TrEMBL record:
The keyword Transmembrane helix applies. It holds the Pfam family LPG_synthase_TM. The chain crosses the membrane at residues 7-25, 40-61, 125-143, 149-174, 200-218, 224-242, 271-293. It is found in: Cell membrane. Its main location: membrane. It is a multi-pass membrane protein. This is Flippase-like domain-containing protein. The lineage of its organism: Bacteria, Pseudomonadati, Pseudomonadota, Gammaproteobacteria, Methylococcales. InterPro entries: L-PG_synthase/AglD (IPR022791).
Amino acid sequence: MHKSKQWLTVIFRWFVAIGLLIFILNKTDSDLLWQTLRGFNPVFGLLLVVCHIAVLMLMAYRWRLIAQQLNVEATYADYLKAIWIGALSGQIGPPLIFSEVARFKVLQDYGDTQSLIGSQVLDRLSGLVALVFILLLTLPINWPVFAEIISAAALLQGLAIVTIAGAVLFRTVLSTKIRAAMARNNISDVMSLGQSHYELSSLIQLLLMLGFLLAAYGLGDPKLPFTLFTLLPLIFAGLTLLPISISDWGTREMFSVYVLSFAGLPAEESAAISIIFGFTYLLTTLLGLLFLLKK
């Protein structure tokens, strides 16, 4: 029954992804979109693949740093294999399920179940902390841009709601028992400020943003490249809060069209940037088949 529910979730998310892509296509000039895509410079596509490979390699190194502190001992090559196969698995199902299960199965013989799962959770949390940090740095930069569309009062209300909700969630999740368990398993030390994995997470986030920027330059010089770059954390934040499709297809395009409009990009160009980013990432994850075929 559990497997049937899991596959129902997969089917539902495929429908969501396809539905959102169809919605985006209906809201844009399809001919102009395909014309924009055809004008993409393949050299930037190659650079994008290199960027994605660098991200996966850094993700493997970050996970290893965290997992070693929880006594999960494996070589860097094993972590890279797990990360890459997990990324490939995330192309056919919900990444938070398929990717994490694949990662666990690859390394399940290198540590106890609790430590390995804990390392995966903390690995995700490290990336989330870096995203929030970069988002907080870039929001003030783009405040004048948002003020043209959204009133300051609405922005302050939104930030207040998010802050209160985050505080309540933090208080609820970190109950006394959970805090005691964290101390018992050395998790508090692993996630303390100053750990080098946060620097890696920030670098990974910047490389993901660079990937979007490369896609934009592959279509021609964007009007406001700095504004475009500093708006990108909002797209990744939206995808983190709304993981409802397969490998972010559809939702990524939806957020891109809305967010990049603040940088003066037309909907067709924004959608094209997102599609190119997603397609080159898909091509990169297919290299994970080499790990599956290798004995």
